[in-house]
Design a protein that fits this description.
This protein is mainly alpha-helical. Helix content is 49%, strand content 8%. The protein has a two-stranded parallel sheet.
Length: 143
């Protein structure tokens, strides 16, 4: 869950603030706001997902390969003829921008659009204005 945002994003949102100034300001019992946030998000996550299902889902995401048994990724993507808009987030560490750049370069009609965000992977959720502008621009140019 920590990899969905960047260190800068966490710092800007929480800094080193505590939820309760009367508690200890150090150690594992310190009531850090960021700790409280992550615990809350973790509990919400567990309420929504069965842990085994989540493990299986992440295994599939991590091992997904459109080129498996078909050649190299470059060879496979070179056969995609339709226009493709590839969105990459400049601070995403889960799906790094360099991977999106690579994919876009292998698509004959691929266009890379970069979302600028300090929010890491969550940028695709939090930067809706940029996402919408890129998608609209792409759709209008391929009408």
């Amino acid at each position: 869950m920590v990899s969905y945002r960047t260190p800068l994003g966490y710092h800007q949102k929480f800094g080193r603030a505590l939820t309760d100034e009367s508690g200890p300001s150090y150690g594992s019992r310190a009531p850090w706001q960021v700790k409280s946030y992550l615990e809350y998000q973790g509990k919400k996550f567990l309420d929504r997902f069965d842990p085994v299902t989540y493990v299986k889902l992440t295994e599939q995401m991590d091992s997904h390969d459109v080129s498996r048994g078909r050649g190299t990724m470059e060879e496979v993507l070179s056969h995609v003829e339709i226009p493709v808009c590839v969105l990459g987030i400049d601070s995403d560490i889960l799906y790094p921008l360099r991977e999106q750049e690579e994919i876009a370069s292998w698509l004959p009609n691929g266009e890379l659009k970069i979302i600028h965000s300090d929010a890491g992977h969550d940028g695709f959720l939090l930067e809706q204005d940029q996402v919408a502008a890129h998608i609209k621009s792409f759709l209008y140019s391929h009408d």
